[in-house]
Write a structure and sequence with these properties.
It is built from 20 helices and six strands. The protein has about 500 residues and is an alpha/beta fold. The longest helix is centred in the middle third of the chain and has 33 residues, at about 215-245.
């Protein structure tokens, strides 16, 4: 069994895996450099992190073929810490965040992804596609005619080459052709070298240069927790997207711990913490990446490009990278979700749109997903609460009013449950409450049942409760130690 896992994750079609990883690497470069500036650090800090994270998580992660690196969501959280206290405190916060993520994985908190609905995942993907495209707008809007021509040529190559051959991913061909044209014709276009200083050496192990005091812990605790949560959320969402794209499962708990190990290592080698990169991951999967080799190669190839091939990589036109990212944004967006907006239930569509709107306008993926999850929970609660039914019937011969309760009784439906019982209707009669078709979920539900019984007894009306299922009886007994609500 172990041998089959090794073959699937590491040795299945290695050429395809490495080519797909190479495409993801080129898609990483502009975003990692841009995110480094957002965090207030040199580009090499983000690039070193992406290399370390890619190498480590290829072995420790729970989702094969996923690309993880220095990400924008983490950069947004890290920026205030860097500006207020400096780079060493960022490394210390990243180290603590990694340890927290390892703890989350060991505690098996990856199960929380079950509470993220399909509508939220769709909104997350669509919002990220919009943000990826928006990140290219400065290069597009402020370009000249030559830049537009290079961008157009890049898109033509990316979309037409697959019609001729799929042996080599078209984005790689795009980079090679546009770079060759730029160098041979000495075109005055922006290149990677213009984006910022690239690394000129290998990353070196270094413990964060901060004092080991409680004051340091106070400074980094909040940012570290934020980095850990944002990173896990984005990685879990990205893993779920890859699950859907490939039709294969992943270990969310292992991904939590694996990301923690990767971020710990990145922080100890002078890099910023990171997480899953959905745009680059989609690109990797689209061009054949299915195993851990594509993830490993993406990280290793990044270092090769940045250090050993720096003179050539520096001359790659930014327009070529923009073309790749435009393609990634187009492929990432779930276009079918636009058609199904009017078909799906309104609540589901509202959740999807809310996730997109909040994410795009805040540029905060974690906030958008949080809003989507909360809305899903609220809408689900309302829907379940409306399913509660209480039907009454009178038997004059027996002098009894019978109430049959069906559905779920919990905090959102407790008031409806109480209001369904009419004291005046039972005057001079006994009351039978049949809850065999109902389930009591929480202490609010138990309190509601107690309230109904107390009201009838206060008017000297005999009450009998029947049909308590085992789970409800256990809850009632644990809440009501006196046993006044035992089934009669």
């Amino acid at each position: 069994m172990q041998i089959s896992f090794i073959r699937r994750d590491w040795s299945a079609n290695p050429i395809r895996e490495m080519l797909a990883g190479a495409v993801a690497t080129f898609a990483l470069i502009p975003e990692v450099i841009a995110f480094s500036f957002v965090a207030g650090v040199d580009p090499q800090v983000g690039l070193f992190a992406s290399f370390i994270i890619g190498i480590v998580i290829a072995f420790t992660g729970g989702r094969p073929a996923m690309i993880s690196a220095a990400a924008g969501s983490v950069a947004l959280v890290a920026a205030p810490l860097v500006h207020a206290h400096g780079l060493p405190y960022l490394f210390a916060a990243g180290l603590l965040a990694g340890l927290l993520q390892i703890a989350f994985g060991l505690l098996r908190l990856g199960v929380l992804m079950r509470f993220v609905s399909k509508s939220v995942r769709t909104g997350f993907v669509n919002a990220l596609a919009i943000l990826i495209f928006a990140a290219q707008l400065p290069h597009i809007l402020h370009g000249d005619i030559l830049s537009y021509a290079m961008l157009a040529a890049g898109l033509v190559i990316i979309y037409l080459v697959p019609m001729v051959t799929k042996a080599v991913p078209s984005p790689l061909i795009c980079i090679l052709i546009l770079t060759a044209l730029s160098i041979s014709l000495q075109l005055p276009v922006m290149t990677i070298a213009d984006l910022g200083k690239l690394p000129d050496s290998l990353p070196i192990f270094s413990w964060p240069a901060v004092p080991l005091t409680l004051e340091t812990l106070r400074i980094i605790a909040g940012p570290a927790l934020a980095i850990a949560m944002v990173g896990l959320l984005e990685s879990m969402m990205t893993a779920s997207v890859v699950d859907d794209l490939t039709g294969t499962p992943s270990s969310k708990n292992r991904e939590c711990a694996g990301l923690g190990v990767a971020n710990t290592a990145a922080s100890l080698f002078g890099g910023i913490a990171g997480c899953g990169m959905i745009g680059q991951t989609v690109s990797n999967v689209k061009y054949g990446g299915r195993g851990r080799l594509s993830t490993l190669f993406a990280g290793a190839f990044l270092l090769v490009l940045m250090v050993l091939l720096k003179p050539w990589v520096s001359q790659v036109p930014v327009a070529a990278l923009v073309a790749i990212m435009v393609m990634v944004s187009i492929d990432t967006f779930d276009w079918s979700s636009v058609k199904t907006l009017v078909i799906h239930p309104k609540m589901s569509s509202v959740v999807m749109l809310a996730t997109v709107v909040v994410t795009v306008f805040s540029s905060n993926l974690a906030l958008g997903v949080t809003v989507g999850v909360l809305l899903s929970g609220v809408f689900f609660t309302f829907k379940v609460a409306r399913l509660l039914q209480v039907q009454s019937s009178r038997d004059e011969a027996l002098g009894r009013v019978t109430y049959k309760v069906s559905g779920q009784v919990f905090f959102a439906s407790a008031d409806v449950f109480v209001e369904s019982f009419d004291i005046e209707d039972a005057t001079g009669m006994s009351v039978l409450i049949d809850i065999s078709q109902a389930h009591f979920w929480d202490i609010t539900a138990v309190a509601a049942l107690e309230k109904v019984v107390d009201r009838y007894e206060a008017h000297d009306i005999k009450v009998t409760v029947i049909g308590v299922n085992e789970a409800s009886a256990t809850l009632i007994e644990s809440v009501n130690g006196s046993g006044s609500l035992k089934e009669i």
